[in-house]
Write a structure and sequence with these properties.
This protein has 257 residues and is α/β, with parallel strands linked by helices. The protein has 9 helices and 7 strands; from the N terminus they run αβαβαββαβααβαααβ.
Length: 257
């Protein structure tokens, strides 16, 4: 019997060409967050784990500038193509080793990334690169499954096809549950938490492509079975022109002492 070929868990390079289809963070939440940290044109921002630039582009739209740090070459290349390099300088690096100068950053942001990193090493690195009293914001944008019947149906398809697999969402929720204690223990203070729902309207074809950014399922079931699951998801929306996807953005912001 031929062994099932599996992707590596968290291999985002394999889905880089689809990643721009995934919904953005809540625009209203980001606007509140920018006001809270008093970010302005002189603020130097570091978007760490920038991926293909979803959060970077939103920061650009608010006139901000700085660095987009991304370790995966394919994701970084897609981000540069999507965002350009005029306001954010794209560099290879990680949360544990950003490559940024010490005391050079006013605001670190991480979108959908903190659960993947070594938090102890990364927070030491954050403290090194942040200026005094600078801020860190950790964001997640998640599917609001409880409030979206279509998302519930898709999750049922995945569960029926692969009932015993691990899901990245479980890892994220566990990380979110401990993030305040984690940063306070590392010497950060003044926790400010925001949560906002939003709906992102998209074409049905974009919705289908958004599911091709998922990495946790194919890395456990193999490409053949994942293709079968995607075919079932596609079939749900073949008669649709546009879809509103229910999302919820969460953010925790801390100040470096």
């Amino acid at each position: 019997m031929q062994a099932v070929q599996l992707r590596k868990w968290g291999d985002f390079g394999a889905v880089a060409s689809y990643y721009h289809n995934w919904p953005s963070y809540s625009p209203a939440l980001l606007k509140h967050l920018i006001a809270f940290v008093r970010a302005e044109k002189t603020t130097v921002v570091a978007d760490i784990g920038a991926g293909t630039g979803t959060l970077t582009r939103m920061l650009q739209a608010h006139g901000l500038h700085g660095y987009a740090i991304e370790p995966d070459e394919k994701m970084r290349s897609a981000g540069i193509e999507r965002c350009g390099t005029n306001s954010f300088e794209w560099t290879a690096g990680s949360a544990e080793d950003t490559g940024l100068p010490s005391k050079s950053i006013d605001w670190i942001v991480m979108g959908n990334a903190f659960h993947w990193i070594d938090s102890h090493r990364s927070l030491e690195e954050f403290r090194r690169v942040l200026r005094d009293r600078a801020t860190v914001s950790l964001l997640w944008v998640l599917r609001d499954i409880r409030r979206d019947a279509l998302l519930q149906e898709i999750e049922s398809i995945i569960h029926d096809a692969a009932p015993n697999i691990r899901r990245t969402l479980d890892l994220v929720l566990k990380c979110m549950d401990s993030v305040e204690d984690c940063l306070m223990a590392a010497g950060f203070s003044d926790c400010y938490r925001l949560e906002m729902p939003h709906k992102e309207k998209m074409s049905a074809s974009r919705f289908r492509d958004a599911w091709r950014t998922i990495t946790d399922v194919p890395c456990q079931v193999g490409e053949k079975k994942w293709a079968e699951i995607l075919n079932q998801i596609d079939a749900l929306t073949l008669d649709e022109i546009s879809i509103e996807m229910s999302m919820r953005t969460y953010a925790w912001t801390f100040r470096a002492l």
